[in-house]
Write a structure and sequence with these properties.
The chain has 4 helices and 2 strands; from the N terminus they run ααββαα. By secondary structure, it is mostly helical. It has 2 domains: 73 residues, Glutaredoxin (3-Layer(aba) Sandwich), CATH 3.40.30.10; 37 residues, no CATH class.
């Protein structure tokens, strides 16, 4: 499972939503045409469709699940701690993106 998709999977499980959010396995190397046409035009994973709204960025999916479904909150209530978590997530996003770029042969990736 790609690291970005695993964020959504972990969030779903942490909040106890296994019966409310269905996972649809997608072959990343042979994505079906319907996925891009009907689900997420960016053709990236994960994507979440809920109440006729499609969310596609993994952090946006995580935040949407946290804000729109019952279960324990992922973020602290304290504004300073919440801001720190947001900064940490932004940093890890850049880091993981740079690692993927480097693995794909991008020589100028920041790590």
């Amino acid at each position: 499972m790609p690291v970005y998709a695993s964020r959504a999977w972990i969030t779903r499980n942490y909040k106890g939503l296994q019966d409310k959010i269905q996972l649809v396995p997608i072959d990343l190397w042979k994505r079906p045409a319907w996925y891009k046409e009907k689900v997420y035009p960016e053709n990236k994973v994960p994507a979440l469709e809920h109440n006729n709204v499609v969310i596609g960025d993994s952090l946006d999916v995580v935040k949407y699940i946290d804000n729109n479904f019952e279960g324990p909150s992922l973020l602290p209530n304290d504004p300073a701690k919440r801001e720190f978590v947001e900064e940490l997530l932004a940093y890890t996003d850049k880091f993981v993106g740079a690692v993927y770029a480097r693995l794909r042969g991008g020589g100028d990736a920041w790590i």
